[in-house]
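User: Predict the structure for this protein chain, please.
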Amino acid sequence: MTRRSSVMAGLGAAVASAAAARAAYAALCRRPPGGPDTWARTNHRGEPVTLVEGPAAAAAAAAAATVTPGLPGRVRAGLAVAGAGAAAFGCYDDLAGSGDRRGFRGHLGALARGEVTTGAVKLAGIGATGLAAAALLGGPPADVVINTGLTAGGANLLNLFDLRPGRAVKVALGGSALLAAGTPGPARGTACRTVAAPVGAALAMLPEDLAERAMLGDAGANALGGMLGAAAAASLSRPARVALLAGIAGLTAASEVISFTKVIERTPPLRWLDMLGRRPAAGAAASNGPGAQAAAAAQSLEADRSRAPDVPERAAADLP
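Assistant: Here is the predicted structure, written as structure tokens:
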């Protein structure tokens, strides 16, 4: 494929994915499986949001990946499996999880005591999903191991950013742009085509996320992150993939002891990007009532992020 045709193929896949995501979101909002209450959550303002954004984005991105022009069948299959598998296990944790255990330490610590949490099931499931996607992508055993880590690690890492409206989507879009721009030579066209499906779905859901009508949840964030990890696995050289995997592992380890939100808020350029398109902070809302109480609880929770770094401050229903 020429560079122009690669760009057009990627653009077409992104548009198809965006259209499918909007259609799926509308359908799920009209008839959410199990009823609206199954997917309803209360955000940090005390306002209702829905989790159907996540399944809509994941289903659209996975479906669009299977028909993206110019990609080998094994790459299409790997992307689709990465998105669908991560979404399935993320959705399970969204709907069945209690929120009592968080982070690798919380889930693995509970497992060591004989308690199998929904989060532990999700971690194992996303690991298996990463392995399946890596096996489909092919390559020597070393590449399968690296690509498994990229897919599973990407799924987990993006979910750690789904703590404020639009943040995970912005990280996904930024990561996609870096992958497409930073991939050298002919592989750049492959990178553009592999990120097209998750980018389209993410862009389609961004207005709902920023307006706090909906949120990705584990289903959406895990799916988009897993697909971006698989896209990197299909596009980058082995040294670049090893370096990226080390970065993902480092950020994931750091999330156990530091708050990404605090780092963002203390860094002016990151804070500006994080607030771009968002409503004013909850602290600027009314000083009394349920919304203010939820905001105060979220702020109190943020002070404890070092102990529970992956608590979604956006969902007051998850507050202890």
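DSSP finds 14 helices and two strands in the chain.
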